[in-house]
Amino acid sequence: MAAKLLVVEDEPAVREMISFVLKQSDYDTLEAEDAEEARAHLAEQVPDLILMDWMLPGMSGVEFTRELKQDAATRDIPVIMLTARGEEDDKVRGLECGAEDYVTKPFSPRELAARIKAILRRVAPHATEEMVEVGGLQLDPTSYRVSVGSQEVDLGPTEFRLLHFFMTHMDKVYSRSRLLDRVWGSNVFIEERTVDVHIRRLRKALEPYGVDGLVQTVRGAGYRFSERQVAR
Amino acid sequence: MAAKLLVVEDEPAVREMISFVLKQSDYDTLEAEDAEEARAHLAEQVPDLILMDWMLPGMSGVEFTRELKQDAATRDIPVIMLTARGEEDDKVRGLECGAEDYVTKPFSPRELAARIKAILRRVAPHATEEMVEVGGLQLDPTSYRVSVGSQEVDLGPTEFRLLHFFMTHMDKVYSRSRLLDRVWGSNVFIEERTVDVHIRRLRKALEPYGVDGLVQTVRGAGYRFSERQVAR
DNA sequence: GGTGCATGTAATCAAATTGTAATAGTGGTT
DNA sequence: AACCACTATTACAATTTGATTACATGCACC
What we know:
homodimer, Rossmann fold, Arc Repressor Mutant, subunit A, 4-stranded antiparallel sheet, phosphoprotein (chains A, B), transcription (chains A, B), transcription regulation (chains A, B), WH-like_DNA-bd_sf (chains A, B), transcription cis-regulatory region binding (chains A, B)
């Protein structure tokens, strides 16, 4: 559930430091020392964000970022560029290649964490670990708890993820295939109808607390999570 | 009371970074950007260890260290010198002035923590920590004792650390891999399933006192320590 | 060298979860 | 009313995941 970040940095001490800071801020980290190793990671799993050193042996961070922005599979992953002091003039070029933000080394852990959080909130709100509350329903990603008032709701892992996704993406219809992408993960080979079943399971779990009406069916389009009641 | 460390470093980002790493290792930190500010802190309280940047505006770290070593009140505080890469030749001079150790920037958090720990173990064998209490369960880090009321609970070292970690990180789910990181230490090569076994041992030890329900399993996510009962 | 404790791994068992398929139901249209 | 497309619900088997136990190794202390 915690956001997964990929750190691409050749200097081991710096990489370890960044990774350490991120872990303390409850992110999961993957590490790579160059573009090649990073590609290997990306082929396996798509992180929520990439921290990319400006200077890399072989292909530079800028070139690599540009490459990522051209591939549909990685285009949407936000990139934060790490530049050394004095390379600040290159800021413009860094952002030009498609990076979301840049941070100059040495950086303070608070600053780094803040920038990451800001970006994640924008592009992947469900990865921020913040408590969500909708219509009396509370979900706390940190403790993995869902409750209505003081009553705890019992959910399976998939229903939990599904609910979390919905709660962080209110009032928008998602098709089954889109839900499979966002909740199950891209490139999974699963029947679309399976989504129906999990929707059912989620509704059933919410039913005793009278909040199952939040999960709404939009015929022909998909599902939606909304506080506004549907006309009957 | 955790050990108190004084960080003397003029670059704010680096100072914050060091401070951050130390706090995660459960140290208290004081910060100073130059010799003058450091003296002000020292006049008030004597830290257990000083991390000193080699280069400081005004009086250099070396000079300042020498000064400290001449004052009876501060003579016994161990000093770790921070040098930038390339200044390594100065290592000798650094140690000459009385520093116990030196670390070159950039450094890995593990390395820094390890060196600090080594020195503190030698110099201040009892950097005492605070007693924790949750739901009738008491844990005293200094005496390595766990008790429920007047009854003592018998725990192995690993279970003790695990419990201590849990008690100081309540209501939050930790995956097996994260527990390995935080309780066993980073980068240990241990099977994730091993965590299960230690959880089991911990629960078994707590069972006779009726507090084993505090250790909760969150399917698909990890384990959690919480006073709130699980819904079932 | 022996003993006992602590620890990590592997094997086994039990239970929860998951995806699919089959069937029933719904709503809208002609 | 019959039909069609789509969704809801249920049952089920396979898979995953966690609990528990037994075992081998390593280490400290006799």
